[in-house]
Amino acid sequence: MTDNFQFTLKKTDSGARLGQVSMPRGEIRTPAFMPVGTVGTVKAMYLDQVRETGADIILGNTYHLMLRPTAERVARLGGLHKLIRWEHPILTDSGGFQVMSLSGLRKLDEQGVTFKSHVDGSLHHMSPERSIEIQGLLGSDIQMQLDECVALPAEPKEIERAMEMSLRWAERCRVAFGEQPGKAMFGIVQGGDIPALRIRSAEALSQLDLKGYAIGGLAVGEPQDVMLQMLETTLPVLPLEKPRYLMGVGTPDDILKSVARGIDMFDCVMPTRSGRHGLAFTRRGKVNIRNARHAEDMRPLDEQSNCPASRDYSRAYLHHLVRSNEALGGMLLSWHNLAYYQELMQGIRKAIAEGRFADFMAETQEEWARGDLQPV
């Protein structure tokens, strides 16, 4: 650990990067997957379990925590780390995603966003400065700039307008953040699916000399090949010595292909959300545990896994729990999915260290393609 925020790029293997973020609250091994704890909880999980799966860092969400329990209350209670019993790094999303996802409940102008609370209808104004203030009250270690995320497809003029305003907000966030030893603020590259706008955004953000850079506004409606094309366009423009974070992504296949292009950090609700709906991600591909074929299958999801949810509980039991709408079913499958994601990241890091990432990627994809075990 260190008193300052540091990123060390240890090795590259073609486009894939092996690194480490060092902060006062701990180290983040990259490529890293960050479980999403939107309102101070990774849904259906104990945080001790989340840590045991191999997670070095989790996320919180500025918009949601602003509403409940409020940033000021969290600060009075000693900060988010103390409140939720997580002593390791936390990254907070700025609320920019909610600009898109709650478009029917907000008004946007140059000064910021006014949200109508989805909880009680109250109005809350979030400027770039207020977003950074909230993240500071929460005590997060990596704070994201406020940006405008546009759903795709969208008109080029609308994408350009949002990108330019996000750049102006990035500068305001940088000033508001100031110097905070041991913490970091990341800028967010926008520009939709237009390469020239992505390049302009990345170049302008690079001039701000931030601690890290995120690629936002992807996996919001566009095909995977478009997302990957935007990464190939954007990443060469960003500083090599700074971490790159692809926001809100994604599936295991998205992660593999994005690591191959140079992404260091990921987050997504997919493993926990899918788990709560009966879908498991495994080394044999996706498994819908609701399907009748599992009803009398006493084999586990993955006998080789170190995770008890994957190794010690039968498919028959998981099937019964999910079909009966028992909470334990979602809990066990969320645990399994997060463990699988972290096992995938561990395998990725090991492969890069050994200079065999391309082989690891091909082997992993081949195993997914072979599919699940044959029914009993």
From TrEMBL:
Residues 248-254, 272-276 are annotated as: RNA binding. Substrate binds at D93, S94, G95, G96, F97, D147, Q190, G217. Pathway: tRNA modification; tRNA-queuosine biosynthesis. The keyword tRNA processing applies. GO terms for cellular component: cytosol. SUPFAM superfamilies: tRNA-guanine transglycosylase. Signal peptide: none annotated. Keywords: Glycosyltransferase, Queuosine biosynthesis, Transferase, tRNA processing. It is an enzyme of class 2 (transferase). It comes from the Bacteria. Gene3D superfamilies: Queuine tRNA-ribosyltransferase-like. Its EC number is 2.4.2.29. Residues 14-368 form the tRNA-guanine(15) transglycosylase-like domain. The active site is at D93 (proton acceptor), D267 (nucleophile). Pfam families: TGT (PF01702). Belongs to the queuine tRNA-ribosyltransferase family. Homodimer. Within each dimer, one monomer is responsible for RNA recognition and catalysis, while the other monomer binds to the replacement base PreQ1. Catalyzes the base-exchange of a guanine (G) residue with the queuine precursor 7-aminomethyl-7-deazaguanine (PreQ1) at position 34 (anticodon wobble position) in tRNAs with GU(N) anticodons (tRNA-Asp, -Asn, -His and -Tyr). Catalysis occurs through a double-displacement mechanism. The nucleophile active site attacks the C1' of nucleotide 34 to detach the guanine base from the RNA, forming a covalent enzyme-RNA intermediate. The proton acceptor active site deprotonates the incoming PreQ1, allowing a nucleophilic attack on the C1' of the ribose to form the product. This is Queuine tRNA-ribosyltransferase. The gene is tgt.
